[in-house]
Amino acid sequence: DWTMGAYRTEAIAKIREQVGDKQVICGLSGGVDSSVAAVLIHEAIGDQLTCVFVDHGLLRQNEADEVVTMFRDNYNIPLIHADESDLFLGELEGVSDPETKRKIIGRLFIDVFQKYASQIDGAEFLAQGTLYPDVIESVSFSGGPSVTIKSHHNVGGLPEKMGLKLVEPLRELFKDEVRALGRELGLPASFIGRHPFPGPGLAIRCPGEITREKLDILRRADAVYIDQIRKHGLYDEIWQAFAAILPMRTVGVMGDGRTYDFALALRAVTSVDGMTADYYPFTHEFLGETSTRIINEVRGINRVFYDCTSKPPGTIELE
Ligand code: XMP
């Protein structure tokens, strides 16, 4: 891609000019934006960049390993894997209100990030994968009336608190351009095409109280669901798909026995920007097969529902 090739060269020159010989910290989420930003900055300044990956214990199956392997081993980017799942899950114990969950996660995220970042000597810059739509949104919303449905957690306010200057090499790009830049930088296509994943992770896919048992069941069920979607060649047609474990047990029958296990909700939507969304019209064959696989392969689930709510009136996540 000629355009992205030129953008890459220009962005690298700008990063070098801005940063000089100083150290840069980048919070890596495993998402496309922060990943593309990290790889681009690494190309510009090499080991002057250190990434911090905050693992809150609310990631999907194998996700933490995949992120660490890709960045540390494949790209040789200095990476701190901050495994703080005990801290996050401990503070979330007994909490069931969605907004309270988000606030706890957001606060701990900043604390943890700050703790690890302060160990990096001479850091003067914080890198973020801010995109152009993020820039416009924060301008047009400032001062005006706004309705907050969900307080999305981010690291806003962190740079000032830590006395760091921002490096935002994707500020002029839209999402599809970031993907093109990612391809240009050699990130795997499967990685670039990944569905969006929310900052609070599985916390908001486990409505009500979060327990390790529920998270464990959810991870396995979600992996089977996504495997089904990929096997049927539907992954790229869907904007976002995931399973959520419902805060209820239902009665079922298996062999000669009665079961009393959790119910699972499956969600899949098409969307352009996540602001509105339509539920995905799976065939009954697909739904039946997926339900059977999940119940056979995942202990702890004995019932599967498909969420056919569009947005509005539903939101994409269950919380
Ligand atoms: P909703 O559920 O609001 O989701 O329809 C729209 C998009 O935003 C994601 N989402 C979040 N992302 N922090 C995030 O970083 C959050 O708290 C959060 N809540 C929702 C959601 O996955 C979807 O892509």
UniProtKB/TrEMBL annotation:
Organism lineage: Bacteria, Pseudomonadati, Pseudomonadota, Alphaproteobacteria, Rhodobacterales
UniProt key word Membrane: no
Pathway assigned to this chain's UniProt record: Purine metabolism; GMP biosynthesis; GMP from XMP (L-Gln route): step 1/1
Protein name, per record: GMP synthase [glutamine-hydrolyzing]
UniProt entry tagged with the keyword Nucleotide-binding: yes
Record's keyword terms, sorted: ATP-binding, Glutamine amidotransferase, GMP biosynthesis, Ligase, Nucleotide-binding, Purine biosynthesis
One example GO MF annotation: GMP synthase (glutamine-hydrolyzing) activity
Source organism of this protein record: Roseinatronobacter domitianus
SUBUNIT field: Homodimer.
Catalytic reactions on record: XMP + L-glutamine + ATP + H2O = GMP + L-glutamate + AMP + diphosphate + 2 H(+)
Organism superkingdom: Bacteria
Boundaries of the shown chain within the full protein: 201 to 519 of 519
EC id: 6.3.5.2
Binding annotation for ATP: S29, G30, G31, V32, D33, S34, S35
Residues in GMPS ATP-PPase domain copies: 2-194
Function field: Catalyzes the synthesis of GMP from XMP.
